[in-house]
Amino acid sequence: MASQAKFPTLTPEEYFTWEEQQLEKHELIDDRVYAMGGGSKNYSLISVRLITLFSNHLETSRCEVGNSDLRINIVGTNNYTYPDVSVTCDDRDKTTTQYITYPCLIVEVLSPSTEAYDRGRKFRMYRHNPALQDYLLVSSTRLEIDLYHKKETGEWSIVNYQAGDTIELKSINLSFPIEEIYRNLDLTPESESPQFP
């Protein structure tokens, strides 16, 4: 994410119209737009593998899997984000065309420039969503995945998965070995400078 200093303050309606004319994607947070930066090769491959895995698993369900082009409206706000992967099984999301609001699962693939934002401010926004059950943070430089899962009590627990572990996503009733996502990837650390709101 880049600084919003060059970009205007917009209402959601202005934002939708304005972004249609842009070459890059932008998130809208507190009436300000933030350009979304590109990701590494690993970032892209991991996202595609997760989308494929989820889509195949949910093929006969009423759930929909979104990629990084699908916005999420943060419940009760005029904020819109672009997660890397999202899954909604909520019928209310079938009535909107430019975004969803009630995902049960959100995935962010981490990079050095986004990790602090994804773990901090972005999760604080997402966690207020009553439909969200699983928030998956996937490293693009290490064989490591963190799952934030909302328990029935409403409290969030965190599970750290590493080599040899099986990821369990209760939100979509799916389990898979962590190696399925990282197969044949070069996990050499990236060199990026942090830029997030």
Strand and helix layout:
Blueprint: H1 12-19, E1 26-29, E2 32-35, H2 41-57, E3 64-66, E4 71-73, E5 80-81, E6 85-88, E7 99-100, E8 103-110, H3 115-119, H4 121-126, E9 134-139, E10 145-150, E11 156-161, E12 166-169, E13 174-177, H5 179-182
Parallel strand pairs: 4-7, 8-9
Antiparallel strand pairs: 1-2, 3-6, 4-5, 6-8, 9-10, 10-11, 12-13
Structure at a glance:
This protein is α+β, with helices and mostly antiparallel strands and 197 residues long. Helix content is 20%, strand content 28%.
Describe the structure.
The chain has 197 residues and is an alpha+beta fold. It has two domains: 1-37, no CATH class; 40-182, tt1808, chain A, CATH 3.90.1570.10. Helices cover 20% and strands 28% of the residues. It is built from five helices and 13 strands. A six-stranded mixed beta sheet has the order 3-6-8-9-10-11. A three-stranded mixed beta sheet has the order 5-4-7, with no helix packed on it. It has a two-stranded antiparallel sheet with strand order 1-2. Strand 12 and strand 13 form a beta hairpin. The chain starts with 11 loop residues before the first helix and ends in a 15-residue tail after the last helix. Residues 1-5 and 192-196 have low confidence and may be disordered.
